[in-house]
Request: fold
Amino acid sequence: MKRVLNIAHRGFTRQFPDNTLEAFEAAIRIPVDGIECDVHETADHRFVIFHDDEIDGRDIGQMTLEEIGQVKLRGKYRVPTLEQTLELCRGKTLLNIEIKRVSSLDRFLELVRERLQPEEVVFSSFNRDIIIELARLAPEIQRGILSAYEIKDPVRLAKSASSGMVVARFPSVSNELVRQVRDANLMIFVWGCVNMAEVRSALTMDIDGVITDFPDEVHEEFVHLAKD
Reply:
């Protein structure tokens, strides 16, 4: 069976809040092949790892790093910085950074390049303009265009975003879609599987990676398949 990457969606979130260093550390211990996380830019042009646009009802883009540093998730967990996350994952696992709201892409890339090699990181976004700009600024780093809907023409989508990868939501992924991706020498990651039955269905297709909230179960499945 082809090697498919097991990527933890926002870390191992069964044990810890998503997008925290604790969740990332737990995912690395499973072990996983990669971790997906989300990045936002703060009011003072720093970068934090968080999924939503707001923290405690306040827009992240209007908060300083110091203000965000005072937030405690579930009363004890901190919102990590981009730098902390890069340092934690360096040399241990692939980091798939989904870019939410970032305007200072030059500074963002500077921080990433200081800590990771191009093969240690993947960028993704629903925002096509961001992916296009990243293609110009960092052509050496793999980029994926995200879609939450059925993709009728994956090749056109990827090329319109200067992307070498399609990140498609299950169950809209089909053998035909994967065939089109492969014929164009593109990569494909799958996200949105809600259980192992859907993961197993995705694995019957020629995909490159699966992004889930249950990377421990995916790991066990991969170990089982390797023994067969």
Observations:
- The chain has a mean pLDDT of 97.
